[in-house]
Every structure is written in structure tokens, then in C-alpha cells.
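Sample entry copied in:
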Amino acid sequence: MKIEFLISTVDRNNVDFIYRMFKNLDIENINAVIINQCINIDLPEMIHVPHDNIKIISVKDKGTSNSRNLAMENMSGDICTFTDDDLIYDSKVLDIIEKSFLENDSDIITFKTNFIENDKSIKNYREESFNHTFHSLMKTGDWEIFFRKKSIENKLIKFDSNFGLGCKYPLCEYQIFLTDCFKNGLSLLYIPKVVVRHPLDIVRTGVKFDSHIEKARGAGFARIFGWKGVFAIVYFAIKKYSLYKDRKSLVKEFIDLFSGYVELLKGY
């Protein structure tokens, strides 16, 4: 079973970062497609890679979803995962992934993430396996997703290029990807095993309530839920009120969310 890592990075002239990502594994056993979006540098003429099973594609482009889609166009693994250049993988990740997919018929399996700095869970995870629901998919990180290549290709599923960092709406891209998989009838399973570690700065760069971010979130709710996104907006605005009440009013949060919601529905 070939397991392949689809890595997004920017402005690279080398791939030295992969030795840190996979420091707990033999780099010779790693299969990867690296999408190097050259936003602030010229396209490098050539970048050396450790071996032929690691491919790097440098492009003059930006946007997380564009990077993910290009990686999927070039993937060749049986099982693939999305990842970024600041993650570190567990020494047993390949064994855990292979065993999980051999023992389960699921199209997609998600796993747990710990922090690099203290090895604690990045959020509260359930300690038993379960089949994902729409609600549980909202809490899943893109680097926790492992999927069967054929399942995604058979359903022609891609990332919505309107969403993601560097795109028109700079968030919600992986929730949209996962819920599109769910809507297309793919089976999604969660297994409570740690396979990857993320920097602690995810806490400091988590939920923000700037107007342009909340507009994008409202558009994401519209993309995921359609007209039912109204209920998601009301629920989110009220539930998160204590986190933004010193910065903005509940009414302003509603206005920001609904501006993106209405704009997205008009566009679709």
C-alpha cells in the first residue's frame, strides 16, 4: 500500500524542511508531492529531492485550495493526506495508516493531532472510533485527513478554489472538502490514534473575528449548508459571543456573517 503526503509550501529553493517533517522516519520510505507556490520569489530552475518518490512542483500561484488541487492532480498513492511544511509525523504513522485502511472499508479516515511542544492533544477528541457526521466534520483539521485516492477521483471531488488562505474567502476550505465528500456518499471514519504533531501557534492563530474573516465564514456556512446556513450563523454568533464581545457587538457579528452568506448564495 503506497501512502503519499501532499505537501503545501511557499517560496522554497530547497526541500530541507522535509527532513524535519519526517525526522522520525526513514526519508527513503516517504512518498510525497510537494507544491511550492512561488509568491515572492522567481520560479527556481531546479530543486534537489532525496529520491524519485518525492516530487516537487513549483508554480507561480497562490491559495491553499489551488495547492491542494494541483497536488491531487499529481498524486499516485493508494492512500493520500494533505499536509503543511511545519508538521512532524509520528514514527509509526505509516504502520498506523496502512493497518487502519486494511481493517476498514472507509473512504476517508481521520486521526488525532498533538502539539509538537508539549505532546498534548490540540483539542478534545473522543476516545472511541466513530463514523463522522456533518457536525463532527466541522471540527476536523485538513492534516488529519487520510483518503483513498480512487474514492476521491471516482467522485471528482476537489477543493473549492474560492475558499482557503490566499483565496477570496480565506477559510473553511477543508470543511467544504469533507462535507462535499459526505454529500457524495463517501464513508468517513475517525480513529483515536495520534499520527502527527502541530506547532502550538495554532492556538494563537485560531478563531478570529475580523470583519473580512467573518464574511468568509458566512460564505462558508452558505457553501456547506445552503439556506440552512442561517441556523449555523445564529448558532455560531451566539456561542462565540464571549470571545468577541469586547471587540464587537452581536449585531455586528451577524452583519459580517450574513454579508458573506448573501454574497455567496447570490454568486451560486
Observations:
- The first helix runs from residue 17 to 21.
- The chain has a mean pLDDT of 94.
- The first strand starts at residue 3 and ends at 10.
- The radius of gyration is 19 Å.
